[in-house]
């Protein structure tokens, strides 16, 4: 199995909020904890035009005419100088203060935030997008709100980290304890491969990897009638995942396997809350028996309710 560097080139959208600053700290700490240096981090700030709402009552608003006016240009330039550029500079300082020595690029774009994030991620071949769970100003909304929702659904070529509201304090590395829910699909196994690559970079910090299979009580009897033993199936899935980790020399002592019975989303959330994981890794597509679409059902519930924990959605490519 080929192990690739898990986050060689990071795109880091920001919005000036405390939430986005937390994502910047997460990215910087991840960068300096790696065994290899990142090729770089790109800070991205997208101007949406919402700043004009304070001035619109004074105009007979006709969009195209207004955009060409000197007044619009002046307000826009003032917004850039007083809000956009300072926020980019502040986030660069945060990364440097943490100790990140790699290349930092600062990019300012104008348009729909989600579309611009996805466009530049694809065009510039970013491997990873790291963004805050929620934000204010330009990125108003919760995790499954407009911007993040669109990025999570559309950035199929990138692994997306949605930084939780709590990241480890006083620790150099923000990832030490990882939970990987499995359903037996090839997509969920991508999460196992991702944590295998993470460990190669963060072996001095990751001290627990838990593989979790939830037996869905809602379909238990149906599958039993079909001749499927759910307990045996769960053990087979977990053993297959564990074998992947052992083959890349991850110590067996830090690998745990667990089977829980109940509603899959509830059991994943309960496991996360009871054991204080700081990263949950979820495959982008598929649910076999659960018949979930990405961010449908189980995934949606986990994203919405695991507010404190950072969640990684692994690239499907």
Helix/strand layout:
Layout: E1 9-14, H1 18-33, E2 40-47, H2 63-68, H3 70-98, E3 104-110, H4 113-123, E4 128-132, H5 146-154, E5 159-163, E6 177-182, H6 186-202, E7 208-216, H7 220-225, H8 230-247, E8 255-262, H9 264-275, E9 279-283, H10 298-305, E10 310-314
Parallel strand pairs: 1-2, 1-4, 2-3, 4-5, 6-7, 6-9, 7-8, 9-10
Antiparallel strand pairs: 5-10
Description:
By secondary structure, the protein is an alpha/beta fold. The chain folds into two domains: 9-163, HUPs (Rossmann fold), CATH 3.40.50.620; 177-310, HUPs (Rossmann fold, 3-Layer(aba) Sandwich), CATH 3.40.50.620. It contains ten helices and ten strands. It has helices spanning 18-33, 63-68, 70-98, 113-123, 146-154, 186-202, 220-225, 230-247, 264-275, 298-305; strands at 9-14, 40-47, 104-110, 128-132, 159-163, 177-182, 208-216, 255-262, 279-283, 310-314. It has a ten-stranded mixed sheet with strand order 3-2-1-4-5-10-9-6-7-8, with helices on both faces. Helix 6 runs parallel beside helix 8 (230-247) and helix 9 runs parallel beside helix 10 (298-305). The longest helix has 29 residues, at 70-98. The radius of gyration is 21 Å and the shape is globular.
Question: What's the short version?
Answer:
This protein has 317 residues and is an alpha/beta fold.
| Class from helix and strand fractions | alpha/beta
Radius of gyration from CA coordinates: 21 Å
Strand order of the largest sheet: 3-2-1-4-5-10-9-6-7-8
Oligomer: single chain
| CATH domain class name of the largest domain | Alpha Beta
Strand content: 15-25%
Helix segment tally: 10
Helix content: 40-55%
Low-confidence stretches: 135-144, 286-295
Let me know the CATH homologous superfamily of the largest domain. HUPs
CATH topology of the largest domain: Rossmann fold
Distance between the termini: 15 Å
Shape label? globular
What's the total count of β strands? 10
Listing every helix as H and every strand as E from the N terminus to the C terminus, the arrangement reads EHEHHEHEHEEHEHHEHEHE
């Amino acid at each position: 199995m080929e192990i690739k560097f898990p986050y060689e080139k990071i795109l880091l959208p920001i919005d000036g909020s405390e939430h986005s600053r937390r994502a910047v700290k997460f990215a910087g700490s991840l960068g300096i904890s790696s065994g290899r240096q990142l090729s770089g981090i790109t800070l991205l700030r997208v101007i949406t035009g919402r700043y004009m709402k304070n001035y619109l009552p004074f105009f007979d608003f006709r969009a195209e005419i207004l955009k060409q006016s000197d007044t619009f240009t002046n307000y826009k330039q003032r917004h850039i100088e007083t809000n956009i550029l300072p926020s980019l500079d502040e986030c660069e300082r945060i990364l440097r203060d943490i100790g990140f020595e790699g290349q930092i690029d600062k990019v300012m774009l104008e348009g729909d935030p989600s579309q611009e994030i996805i466009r530049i991620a694809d065009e510039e071949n970013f491997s990873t997008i790291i963004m805050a769970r929620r934000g204010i100003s330009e990125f108003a909304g919760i995790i499954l709100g407009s911007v993040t929702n669109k990025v999570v659904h559309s950035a199929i070529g990138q692994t997306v980290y949605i930084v939780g509201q709590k990241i480890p304090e006083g620790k150099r590395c923000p990832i030490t304890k990882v939970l990987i829910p499995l359903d037996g699909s090839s997509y969920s196994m991508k999460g196992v491969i991702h944590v295998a690559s993470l460990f190669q970079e963060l072996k001095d910090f990751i001290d627990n990897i838990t593989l979790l299979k939830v037996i869905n009580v809602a379909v238990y009897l149906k599958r039993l009638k079909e001749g499927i033993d759910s307990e045996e199936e769960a053990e087979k899935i977990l053993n297959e995942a564990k074998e992947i980790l052992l083959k890349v020399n991850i110590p067996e002592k830090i690998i745990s396997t667990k089977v829980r019975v109940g509603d899959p989303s509830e059991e994943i959330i309960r496991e996360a809350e009871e054991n204080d994981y700081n990263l949950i890794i979820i495959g982008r597509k598929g649910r076999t028996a659960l018949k979930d679409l990405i961010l449908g059902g189980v995934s949606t519930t986990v994203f919405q309710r695991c507010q404190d924990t950072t969640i990684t959605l692994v690239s499907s490519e």
